[in-house]
Amino acid sequence: MNEAKQYKKFEAGAAGSMETTPVDYTKFLEHILALESQNSPITQLLFSPNIVINSKKQFGPESLETTTENERIGLNYGMAWGLITKTPYGKGVFKEGHSEGFQHYSILYPEHHLGVLLISNSDNAESIFKELLKITIGDIYTPWEWESYIPFNEGN
What we know:
The protein has one domain. It is globular. Helices cover 24% and strands 20% of the residues. Strands 1-2-3-4-5-6 form a six-stranded antiparallel beta sheet, with helices on both faces. By secondary structure, the chain is an alpha+beta fold. It comes from Maribacter polysiphoniae. This is Beta-lactamase.
């Protein structure tokens, strides 16, 4: 039986060296929801809008272009968390990331104790995030265009 070797990073990098399991990441998100429901100073700090996002895209050449299209959802960044401040669910807080061979996205709507974690071992998963968010929790507010999560059925 061939066992796949897991690639290990030997130096920490703030943008992408954390490794975890779906179970442990879910526990982390549940704890964040619990802290927020207790009006914790920690989540008040994490989820206070610090930077209004007015770029057309998160990365790439269009990240230098400004737009007002994300004002409708109140797209901001707090302390390392993305924020959507204008939705019928109340404030949404999200974390995302990808690298070679994996992609993930999580969003919480603390006022409704609602959230979802999407984790994949694929370079193509972001193309189904829009549909998964809609199907799992009715989230149609995540800024998927800004994130460049181009749906599989809208691609080139």
